Amino acid sequence: MSSEWPIVKLGALASFQEGYVNPSQRESAYFDGNVKWLRATDLNDGIVTTTSRTLSDEGFLSAGKSAMLFEPGTLAISKSGTIGRLGILGDYMCGNRAVINIKPNESVVPRYLFFVLRHLRSKIETLAEGSVQKNLYVSTLSNLDVPAPPMEVQRLFADTLGVLDDRITLLRETNATLEAIAQALFKSWFVDFDPVRAKQDGCAPEGMDEATAALFPDKFEESEIGSVPKGWGVGKLEDLLILQRGFDLPASERVPGSYPIIAASGPSGTHHLPMAKAPGVVTGRSGVLGRVFLELEDYWPLNTTLWVKEFRAASPCYAYEILRLLDFASFNAGSAVPTLNRNHIHSLPYLIPPRECIDAYEAMAMTLHRRVRENQNQAHTLATLRDTLLPRLISGQLRLPEAEAEAIAA
């Protein structure tokens, strides 16, 4: 690593604490408590405030003497699976065996160290050992070479890049809120039927103008799928939309371009040609089931996906939400590799609301999703700038006043 700053071992800048809390999955009493259980998949290369699973006090204490909490403000890194994923802890958490806590000492600014370790991730990945499953060990990690400029330089370094990181985090949080609003609106209108219930009670639907409220009936009627708004139809999923298998595109034939390639797990590079027009909806067909993607630009759905070839009674945002509610795992037609057969879900019974109601939802939801896409593009631009500045700052090729000017102008 080329740098004008002194180089020291990571072990001289921090102490380490490995996670050990791995309670038995068979003990249901061990989970869903107040103790945040940090796993490698929770590390987001930013500030970690929540974990995908929590433990009860009993589950935490099942680790015995190894049961320790990682403190807020310290760093965590994945030691197995996806090696080198990072996080700054925003709360007290216990870690499982796939996580190492890195506690900076007084000779280094924590956020500076975080940025440096993120920059060195490819190097950290090479430190992992093992034939069957790679693991990163504290003894090896502690010998990693790290540039150590003066503390005042570290602080300026962390503050400058922190401005960009904080703006990216805010954009992502805003997007999560916007997507939650679109989903909550769909659930209110087409699952819980809140406007119909309000009108049935003689009240005006909350947060809805008169023209939109007039689209909803004021009573329910029984149908083959239960009580539904009066006058709304019942059909099959294929009456709402038609799913089609994606297209083959071997890696050797891909030409980077302007159009996203969508795999079962999500975006997977770009291509110079699209195969489907936007807006579109894609979900996994093979390998990864249950993830659903709304595409707002022309795209190439891979053969591991199903894409909405035809929107019948549904619109794109409406189709996106109904597919997100599906229990895809229950329709797995594969064995070792999860596979979804589109014919199995095409025949599912579904509510068919009037087109006017769907269009009213689409107009609001699409506005929200377009804002999400704008924020994603801005976050990508900021991340590119941050990742460009980082190695130049570490090497000393770029001075902090120049970096601050670029960060402010972004």
Strand content: 15-25%
Total domains, how many?
2
| Beta-strand segment tally | 21
The helix fraction, in percent, is 25-40%
Secondary-structure content class: alpha+beta
Oligomerization category of the chains in this entry: single chain
- Overall mean confidence score, pLDDT: 91
CATH class of the largest domain: Alpha Beta
Number of helices: 12
Report on the architecture of this protein.
It is a single chain. The protein has 410 residues and is an alpha+beta fold. The chain folds into two domains: 7-148, DNA methylase specificity domains (Adenine-n6-DNA-methyltransferase TaqI, Chain A, domain 2, Alpha-Beta Complex); 177-368, Adenine-n6-DNA-methyltransferase TaqI, Chain A, domain 2 (Alpha-Beta Complex). Helices cover 36% and strands 22% of the residues. It contains twelve helices and 21 strands. It has helices at 57-61, 110-119, 121-127, 138-141, 151-190, 194-200, 210-213, 237-240, 316-324, 342-346, 355-395, 400-409, and strands at residues 7-9, 14-18, 31-38, 46-48, 53-55, 75-78, 86-89, 94-95, 99-104, 145-147, 220-223, 226-229, 233-236, 241-245, 259-263, 266-271, 280-284, 292-295, 300-301, 305-311, 349-352. A five-stranded mixed sheet has the order 2-9-6-7-4, with helices on one face. Strand 11 (220-223) and strand 12 (226-229) form a beta hairpin. Helix 5 (151-190) runs parallel beside helix 12. The longest helix is centred in the last third of the chain and has 41 residues, at 355-395. The protein starts with 6 loop residues before the first strand and ends with a helix. The mean pLDDT is 91.
